[in-house]
Design brief:
Oligomer: heterodimer
Shape of chain A: flat
CATH class of the largest domain in chain A: Mainly Alpha
CATH class of the largest domain in chain B: Alpha Beta
CATH architecture of the largest domain in chain B: 3-Layer(aba) Sandwich
Helix content of chain B: 40-55%
Radius of gyration of chain B: 23 Å
CATH superfamily of the largest domain in chain A: MetI-like
Number of strands of chain A: 0
CATH topology of the largest domain in chain B: D-Maltodextrin-Binding Protein, domain 2
Distance between the termini of chain B: 49 Å
Strand content of chain A: under 5%
Helix content of chain A: over 70%
Structural class of chain B: alpha/beta
Number of helices of chain A: 12
Radius of gyration of chain A: 27 Å
Structural class of chain A: mainly alpha
Number of strands of chain B: 13
Shape of chain B: globular
CATH topology of the largest domain in chain A: MetI-like fold
CATH architecture of the largest domain in chain A: Orthogonal Bundle
Number of helices of chain B: 19
């Protein structure tokens, strides 16, 4: 014979086990469904990263049958390596020039295109072309444009009295030339993002601003457009930063990091150490530094953007 | 049990199939644009001579760098070709890592090896740790190219320069004549520090000492080499061209003198045809005791299976002697290093092509294209290239001694501590 309390407890237990069972089943299905993605992520992303991380503590070089653990020796070498510091500095300079350059020009282009009434899509297409084309092929075009003898850039500058030189072969102009190409390439992409951002700004805000006495175009931009574009700008800045950190193709085609490492950047140094000098362990250590930078940027992106950095 | 017997059956059929049909060997070589025709002809002739062996060509390497990269990767998965043709300065790394096989066993079995034209200077180029590992297939040497039209317009009546001082004198004569040309280009940027080694070898100066643990080029001869280089850059106002620009501009008639490898001769001859008279001359300032580094590539045997290795050796020998070697000279700008091929098969050919003969006449000067030892070997090459570049850009053209000193210090740090 059971008391009402016992029946109640029994019932509660039954309900809770069935709920737990449902939850467990739900968990299982969720795990099963995400398993392929998780397994692939481990195989293709996390596994290799761990392998590279471990490699950086060995003396393995490509083609070796065996290796020795050398502890931090590779990292010690890195700290002493002038070329590594040059690569880091150059990469930061590159990122530092390309981000503001491509954001200001991209936003400018977006605002200008928004303001015209005729041929908007044509302009958009023109500015977007560099994004669509292969950068390697475009790098070859730039190589001709920057040629000292017959290049367009040299000839135009020559018209203004600037002496022509082999822009990509001179230590003080090689890196700026690469920055210029990167800005030219990133501009269109950023412009499209800004245009999307512009269309999402409610018209009423401009009307309200006008009622409140905002008259000049600059004030409209400064008080309404710019604050409301902050999340887009943040996103654009981070994407551009990550892409700039990864710069490789133009360096490989145009300067090979030269002259005398004047345009050496981190990813190109990784390539050079790993695949030209076959110093795999050193390249692995450099890769860890590179990943640390990218990870940092990703963190900034997650925190800054997910913290809802906007006014809506 | 059943499973095992299936495997056994499969293995057996594979084995019998292997012995029944011809032995197949796989060969891989660099620079299709230079050598595709060469190998096509060699294989056609080889098939006639050895019908029992099928030669399968893998897709050619893009460059010497690509070649060593591919072999090193394939060594991990054990998928290397049976024969690989590698840049002369890229052989060492394959020997050090135990990927290339010693050829001594095969050579010992050959009855008339020397008579077939394999001489010591040639075999030295592929000898490591006292054992022959590579047989040079096509070699090149540094030579001088002259645009005779530029020289004529400049009013140069003396014979072609024999020393670097005469080269500088000629530079100044060309500069004064007011022609819209660069006076000269010197191939400092050829891969593997080739021209740095050329200047040093011309004074019989080696890169490292005998133990291969200490830099040797920081001596008087090395100083002379770096100073000569800086002087050439400065006095001749040498332009900072990359490889393509230099060759393109010289072929277009825009440079007076061009110091480069004989291997470009075919190309330059074709491109300059009808624009100016091209003449080649010996490399200047080579001492009586000095030499010049050999460029080019050598065949290396990687096959471990005895049957395949034996077949691969037959191919390697065919390609580097007699008819095979002669085809190299006929189809490319390179020379076969084989003595017999040059003296017997190609006698008439060189009589008709005097520009090509310039390098053949320099063959006694043949020295090794030195590869630095150890894991940092290729990085050292880059350190030297960077140092030379700082002179070419004009940045440090006035301080060759300091450049050499710093370069020595950096290279020394990257060398192995003990000799191998």
């Amino acid at each position: 014979m059971s008391t009402p309390e016992a029946i109640y407890a029994d019932e509660a237990a039954r309900v809770s086990t069935s709920a737990a069972r449902a939850r467990a089943r739900y968990q299982l299905i969720a795990t099963l469904l995400s398993a392929p993605a998780v397994i692939l992520m481990f195989l293709l992303l996390i596994g290799p990263v761990i392998a590279v991380f471990l490699l950086s503590f060995t003396d393995w070089s490509l083609g070796d049958a065996e290796f020795n653990w050398v502890g931090m020796a590779t990292y010690d070498e890195m700290v002493e390596d002038d070329i590594f510091w040059k690569a880091i500095t150059n990469t930061l300079i590159y990122v530092g020039i390309v981000i503001p350059g491509s954001i200001i020009l991209g936003l400018g282009a977006a605002l200008l295109i928004e303001s015209v009434t005729v041929g908007r899509s044509l302009w958009r297409a023109i500015y977007f072309l560099p994004v669509m084309s292969t950068l390697i092929a475009m790098a070859v075009v730039w190589e001709f444009m920057l040629n000292a003898k017959f290049g367009m850039v040299s000839q135009v500058l020559g018209f203004f009295g600037v002496e022509a030189k082999s822009w990509l072969q001179e230590p003080d102009t090689a890196l700026p030339a690469l920055c210029l190409i990167a800005i030219w390439q990133a501009l269109g992409f950023n412009m499209v993002l800004f245009m999307a951002g512009l269309t999402s700004i409610p018209r009423e805000l401009y009307n309200a601003a006008e009622v409140d006495g905002v008259r000049s175009a600059w004030d409209r931009f400064w008080l309404v457009t710019w604050p409301l574009l902050t999340p887009v700008t943040m996103f654009v800045a981070i994407i551009t930063a990550i892409r700039s950190f990864q710069v490789f193709d133009t360096v490989h085609v145009l300067t090979k990091g030269g002259p005398d490492n004047a345009s050496m950047v981190l990813v190109y140094q990784i390539y050079q150490e790993g695949f030209e000098f076959f110093r795999s362990s050193y390249a692995s250590a450099l890769t860890m530094v590179f990943l640390a930078f990218i990870f940092l940027l990703t963190l900034v992106k997650v925190f800054a953007i997910e913290r809802k950095l906007h006014y809506q | 049990m059943k499973f095992r017997s299936i495997i056994g059956a499969v293995a057996l059929t594979a084995l019998t199939a292997g012995t029944a049909s011809a032995t197949e060997i796989e060969v891989q070589y660099p620079y299709a644009h230079l050598f595709a025709e060469t190998y096509k002809q060699i294989i056609a002739e080889f098939n006639k001579a050895h019908p029992g062996i099928t030669v399968k060509m893998r897709a050619p390497y893009e460059s010497y760098e690509d070649g060593s990269q591919k072999v090193l990767k394939e060594a991990i998965t054990r998928k290397t070709p049976d024969i690989t043709f590698q840049g002369l300065n890229r052989q060492r790394i394959l020997v050090e890592k135990g990927i290339a096989q010693s050829l001594e066993g095969f050579i010992a079995k050959e009855a008339d090896f020397e008579k077939d034209g394999y001489h010591k200077a040639m075999l030295d180029l592929g000898t490591f740790n006292g054992k022959v590992h590579g047989i040079p297939f096509s070699v090149s040497l540094p030579i001088a190219y002259y645009n005779m039209d530029v020289l004529k317009k400049a009013g140069w009546s003396k014979p072609l320069p024999k020393t670097w001082d005469e080269v500088i004198e000629l530079c100044q004569v060309i500069a004064k004549s007011g022609q819209d040309v660069d006076t000269m280009f010197w191939g400092w940027n050829i891969t593997g520090n080739w021209f740095w080694q050329a200047l040093n070898w011309s004074r019989n100066n080696s890169m490292l000492d005998k133990t291969e643990t200490k830099v040797n080029f920081n001596n008087e001869h090395g100083k002379w080499a770096m100073r000569t280089f800086a002087k050439l850059v400065k006095e001749c106002k040498m332009p900072n061209y990359n490889l393509k620009e230099a060759m393109g501009n010289f072929s277009a008639g825009k440079i007076g003198m061009y110091f480069w490898s004989i291997s470009a001769l075919q190309r330059v001859t074709n491109d300059s045809a009808g624009k100016f008279t091209l003449k080649t001359g010996p490399y200047p300032s080579v001492d009586s005791s000095g030499g010049l580094p050999a460029g080019g590539n050598a065949g290396m045997l990687l096959a471990k299976d005895p049957e395949r290795a034996a077949a691969a050796w037959k191919f390697l020998k065919f390609a580097t002697s007699g008819r095979g070697a002669a085809i190299v000279a006929e189809t490319t700008g390179y020379m076969p290093p084989n003595k017999k091929a040059n003296e017997v098969y190609l006698k008439d050919f060189y009589a008709q092509n005097p520009n090509k003969f310039t390098a053949v006449a320099q063959l006694p000067l043949l020295r090794e294209w030195y590869a630095f030892p150890g894991k940092n070997g290729l990085k050292i090459t880059k350190v030297i290239e960077d140092a030379m570049q700082s002179i070419v850009t004009g940045e440090r053209v006035d301080e060759p001694d300091q450049v050499l000193e710093e370069m020595t210090e950096k290279v020394q740090k990257l060398l192995p501590k003990t000799s191998s």
